[in-house]
Recover the amino acids of this structure.
């Protein structure tokens, strides 16, 4: 919350110069269903810390959590400054007609556009945490078992319903040969021979998402898994091979426990493939060679990047989490959240007297005035102007 | 036939090929901008004189010098700004490399206004180029002379595979905005800001909008009227009032107004002589449309000082209006001209209430000998920027961010803030491919003990207050 001092030039040496953090006012947080506590509370922490009043619109899809957020959470906060509003797309649309001073949205790019368009009518700034298809490049120069462990953990966590999960693998046919048995081994290790009975595997949030995912199981060929159970909204940890770029599983964000493998012949081809598509929220590259990892990093763009692992960085509050392009705008976590929900107001407090010093800037002008002013404005040795 | 299609495709391809990535390339562009300013100084001064009757002093101070300063700052700091920022790690990532990498967005659109047509074009351009983007520049068609210089002369100093100037009015700009950009930087009115943001939303393009508002100027009873008059007048009549951060109206008590008026008259005479129209130091209104709009405002309240106008010269005298009602046009729209209305309030509380009933402005000013009064106004209001006891000097400091809030805008720039505005900050974590045993803790099947260990490992190192 502290004022941040700024550096001065010669003309402002006697002034107090600082950046003051101010709350925007009334903030709207629209939260998703996949991590309904985390993705509601973490933005809320920032909004409250920054001194805003908050309207929270939790997801109506994660009904269990919605109830707790609506009925229990307000009891712990000052309700003159905090409210939970409930509803589906129609109610949210009506809510968005109102004016807010900041809107923080987590969800799909499609709805992100709707939110930003509504915000534009009131010139309301926004942070949009969206999604995308997060590529996961696996180099030939790798230990397949290590890669399988890491990719599988991050893919099947929360039954794949994670915006930063690896969405698809890019690797050579040779690597694929080695990866498949390793992935099977990992899946068995993690979830047992009957994953449906493992306590460590999640379920799909609702029927609509389940049906969508079950349809994706028809793409390419099932190499591992492929089972589903409608009564349980269960989809087995699945790996698909022989998928075409045009198939639905390679067109939409999967958001489920299905991992397609797409073949490329080289890291260059992988980079080209990635760059033909929308910038993703996350990008992964696995290789024993740090050069290959760095090449991936240098020649692509994404919200965030991890070499040789999955989204462990979300646990690091010192890095900002956010998208770029279709995967979003703005960022948060830790201090970045506080800053997101604060207006940074530049302040200069000059003494009311000492008018003689200011005289130099007044007309009528002479060459001398001009020179002196130019010099004065440029006088700070590292901050010219 | 879409006039912009080819240009945009060409620039995207150049970006895709990686032309703008190296520090050397970017520095060369910035040096090109520097040479553009240096080699065309007279041409630029002439253009500003033609468009706005800017004096050499104003042109130099508020257009050329500021632009040059930003170029120099960027050149000096480019590599430091481009560097990966390493960040503190937790126990789980101790052996890893964790950093924030700055990346260009890609194809950036800068839409520039007419009031400081060189400064408000070049300063964002410096940031966009320093950050490694390809840039499409849409200068204002209203400041015609500068538009010509920017379209015909500026491109010669930059790599034209990565930079283009497009021309046109509202209709062409609308068509341009249908295209997809990776960032849009707009300076102009709130009304058009909404149009830009709505267009950007269709492509999920992030924006910075530098807009405007009515910037209040509170003048306390506890003041030296002459000092205040000097300071307020200079910032109000600079560029004939066509400044987004100029004090738009004064709030003071009737008693203060009595003392302020003669002081303002004295200041105006001192600055511009007995016949301001013949002073070389007073600008002119940009065009007929703005002139007519301003002339109509002269009918609000009563003219206390000035009030003369000359259509053939687009001249409006430095004017002070009194007895204005909140409902009159002069108190409804951003004035953007050399007219200063005074509105009476009986106390600083009433002033604050008045200010807070209205949209958050781009700038807010408070004059008082009492620092307590100044701080009270600061604390109880919000605005893009704030200055106590002076005008928009805060804008000359490139170490401070410049931007609006609410209807006065979103985002900020100047100095490093420009570079950051035009960069995507990409969180990066580089781990080792080996040492898989350490990861075993996180894999299922799980146990409560393992969970406890993991939670400790995720805690920020050495900071007991960051519990995840």
């Amino acid at each position: 919350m502290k004022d941040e001092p700024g550096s001065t030039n010669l003309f402002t040496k006697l002034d107090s110069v600082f950046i003051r953090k101010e709350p925007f006012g009334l903030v709207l947080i629209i939260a998703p269903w996949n991590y309904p506590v985390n993705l509601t509370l973490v933005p809320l922490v920032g909004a409250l810390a920054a001194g805003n009043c908050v309207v929270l619109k939790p997801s109506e899809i994660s009904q269990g959590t919605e109830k707790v957020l609506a009925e229990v959470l307000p009891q712990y906060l000052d309700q003159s400054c905090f409210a939970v509003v409930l509803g589906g797309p129609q109610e949210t649309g009506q809510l968005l007609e109102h004016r807010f001073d900041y809107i923080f949205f987590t969800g799909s790019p499609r709805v992100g556009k709707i939110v930003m368009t509504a915000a534009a009518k009131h010139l309301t700034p926004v942070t949009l945490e969206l999604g995308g298809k997060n590529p996961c490049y696996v180099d030939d120069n790798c230990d397949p078992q290590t890669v399988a462990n890491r990719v599988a953990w991050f893919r099947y966590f929360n039954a794949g319903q994670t915006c930063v999960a690896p969405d698809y693998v890019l690797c050579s046919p040779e690597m694929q040969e080695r990866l498949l048995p390793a992935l099977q081994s990992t899946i068995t290790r993690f979830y047992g021979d009957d994953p449906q009975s493992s306590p460590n595997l999640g379920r799909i949030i609702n029927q609509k998402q389940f049906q969508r995912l079950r349809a994706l199981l028809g793409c390419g060929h099932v190499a591992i898994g492929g089972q589903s159970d409608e009564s349980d909204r269960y989809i087995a940890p699945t790996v698909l091979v022989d998928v075409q770029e045009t198939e639905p599983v390679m067109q939409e964000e999967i958001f489920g426990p299905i991992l397609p493998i797409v073949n490329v012949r080289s890291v260059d081809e992988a980079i080209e493939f990635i760059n033909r598509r929308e910038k993703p929220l996350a990008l992964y590259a696995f290789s024993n060679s740090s050069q290959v990892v760095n090449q991936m990093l240098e020649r692509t763009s994404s919200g965030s990047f991890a070499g040789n692992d999955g989204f462990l960085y979300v646990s690091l509050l010192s890095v900002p989490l956010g998208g770029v392009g279709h995967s979003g705008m703005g960022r948060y976590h830790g201090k970045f959240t506080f800053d997101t929900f604060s207006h940074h107001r530049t302040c200069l407090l000059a003494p009311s007297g000492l008018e003689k010093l200011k005289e130099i800037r007044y007309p009528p002008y002479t060459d001398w005035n001009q020179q002196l002013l130019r010099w004065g404005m440029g006088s700070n040795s590292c901050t010219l102007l």
User: Anything to note?
Assistant: Residues 88 and 358 of chain B are 43 Å apart (CA to CA). Residues 462-468 of chain B have pLDDT under 50 and may be disordered. Chain B touches chain A through 108 residues (CB under 8 Å).
